[in-house]
Amino acid sequence: MNVLSTMPVALTGSAEDSDLALAERHCPLLRLDDREPFRPLAAGYAVYRGEMQSVSSKFTIRPVADCVIEYAIWYDWDIQHLYDLEHVWVHVDAAGRAVKVEASRHGARRTMTRPDGSLPVEGPRPVLYLEPGKHAHWADPGEMRAKAGLLIEGMCGAFVGAQGVHRSNRFSDRGLIAASPFQNRLATLKLKRMRFTPAWQFGCDSDAGEGLALVPWSRLKAWIPGRVSSLVTALPATVPHLAAVFLDCGDTLVDESTEEKIPGTEVVLKAALIPGAGEVVEQLSRSGYRLALVADGPRATFENVLGAYGLWERFEAHVISGDVGELKPSEKMFSAAMTALGLTDAERVRSVMVGNNLERDVLGANRFGMMSVFLSWSTRRSHVPRLRRERPLFTISHIWKLPELLERIELSLPELASCPEVSS
């Protein structure tokens, strides 16, 4: 669907019609890598006939001839984040000839010339090459690969999805674009599933298909926040992800050897955390995972110990055997956690239980139909399964390995059947 049809309509007059004709005549032809996953969708143009601040970028516009046509070019994604707005500036003389071309490259404005010093134009139109995945502009593909090829391949590979939802731009600074930690993680996961190796062949261009929707910048500016909101809102239905992470406490987060109990009771007054446990819980919370504490013992124990480190409130649900009336591996413990998080039975298979006890944590999770993660940090309990269902699906030696494992699990989940197209 042509995105032009989803943008607000603007009234035009003779001056606007003249600017549109000028913008159409000199609209850049953008050449894309054959494996490029993201096409440019729209360009918001503005025409400057004197020095002034750009309406869509941080730069001051200084025409070197009769006027400058500014193209703010929109992509839904680049390979490292959701949101990408790039720029091309075409300086035109009174005879209608392009005399200078500038374009954006990683936050800078660069003059575009071919290696022989000539302008990269075909007739009245600039012809520019886009960095695979990143969409920064070059006048020559060979120069691009020679000077930035390794960095570009790294950004399309090892560093893919590094920023999730881009939240440092003119729209987010005004509160018009926002994303929760959960949505930000999903954006990262989507991009990591799309990592690719550039072909370094540029047989595709922006004229293909429906082409580039060319509109006044004011229309594109009004459309972008809603577009981003639609993209962000669609992420949970389109990106495979874990529904929840259940965590045990003793010898999973807290070192049981350091526990100090209230005399004559089973209530722990204080204890030390396993090294790295606090940081991991904070990291998982910041990444938008839905966390449930599923632990055996009296509620006061966990309120005392985890509360002292500010971790109690990081859990969305607290399912404690002292409240439920049964210990793990009872199904009631896991079912209560699912209910507390508002999850369905179908979401069991996308949920994870992490604990140190094969007989309780692992057996209970396996019987319940969840993924089980055995934390083998402590030797206080057996590491040898007695039953087939005590065999964990995954084993980690230390709690700080959990975030990486969870991401690997999410990236291995099957694609979701429902992937609605974003149309707004």
TrEMBL record:
GO molecular function, a single term: hydrolase activity
Keywords: Hydrolase, Magnesium
Root EC class: hydrolase
Pfam families registered for this protein in UniProt: Hydrolase (PF00702)
EC number(s) from the headed UniProt entry: 3.1.3.-
Statement: the UniProt record of this protein carries the keyword NADP: no
InterPro entries: HAD-like_hydrolase, HAD-like_sf, HAD_sf
Protein name: HAD family hydrolase
